[in-house]
Amino acid sequence: MIGKTLLALAAMAPLLFGSPSPASAQKVIKAGLTLPQKTAGFDHVNGMYETFKEEVEAATKGALKVELVYGGALGNPNDRLNQMRRGIIQMSDASEGNYATIYPDIQVLSMPYLFPSEQVAWKAFDGPFGAAMAEDIRAKTGVRVLGWWEAGGFRHFSANKPVRSPKDFVGLKMRALGPVFAKPVEAMGGSASPIAFNELYTSLKTGVVDGQDNATNVFRLVKLYEVQKYLILTGHIYSFGPLGMNDAFYRGLTPDEQKAVSAAAAKAVAYNRETSRKGEGVALEFVKSQGVTVITLTPEARGEFARATQGPVREWLRGQVSSPRVIDDALAAVEKAK
Asked: What total number of domains does the chain contain?
């Protein structure tokens, strides 16, 4: 009697509970992002992931869903990077400085004055050198690099006094988060302090540090124009980020899903680069309108900055990377991309 009852219940299960939903087979790509949704002036990052989401979900007809978690709700960038490595989340907008904590070789791409323009940087990233580094990152960290995005373009120094040559840095206290960003400051006679991003505005306002370096849109985003009088267009380091995904998750996708993810990543990076270029110009005009004096360096002055910083940073890097050849390969890739 009991057996007949169980059989009857099994037969009625679809009617009682419904047939298995297609959503139950849906795969979710969770991406942790730093900034709140619709942050003005930062569409090149959030918009890149939103483009990726739209493209993936359309191409897979919803079999793959992309969940974007904004505003640092999943932790700081280093936390999210490690969550991605462990497969807790599948993607994160961690940038080059964060990746340096798990893959030191990436620091060669932050050598001062390595790239003469954004376009040359893109060619190097999209060419054989970028592909080889992406594969090395995958093999050593478990993160698959789907592309290389621009984090606002070149970094520029700001200060509360005019800076036009390396000697003007002597005695300045500069915020620099990460050793590869601190070395150029130290090479010019300044001191570097690793102040957290959320403490930067207050530290500048109270004089804990005299200046900092970031892309122009970051300068605008956190209202540094309120606490810095001068923005010096040194363009000394190019800011970027790997568009990373947990490799085990990617390998678990079907071939068609992998194709959709890769195609969506290419469109997202293209969107990022175009939007970043437009946004930098808008941000620069805005900070000028707020009373910041923007100093454009002469070619001779840029040469002075390059000579003061390149040698010391390259020498330091030789003790940080897996092989000095990584530095030589990066330099050769840039020459080929020019």
From this structure: 1
